[in-house]
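name: query_chain
kind: protein
chains: 1
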Amino acid sequence: MADKAVKLAMLKARIFGQVVKPPNVRSPSKLMRKSLRGPEVMEYFKGGVHPRAIDATFKPLRALSIFKDEDRDWRERQLKSYVARGKAIVKKGGGKRAAKTKGKK
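structure:
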């Protein structure tokens, strides 16, 4: 009976252009739902380049205007405009509340 049901499902899938999971085959969906872990990620990306190494490579080229990083240039312009308006992002522990308590000591 189960054999007939499998054959019918395969036939139905072929007629309507659907994909059917073959019987007795494990699905990777459970594995895909799990979060990635460090060693597995490093194994997957082995031979990749670290972002800091890329920054160190292109920093002299940016200084000489040979290489342009549009995103970084935009971010620097935004930061300068924030500082000019007095809205710059403060370092951790340097907010209003910390400034109040520093004066009391």
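note: The chain has a mean pLDDT of 79.
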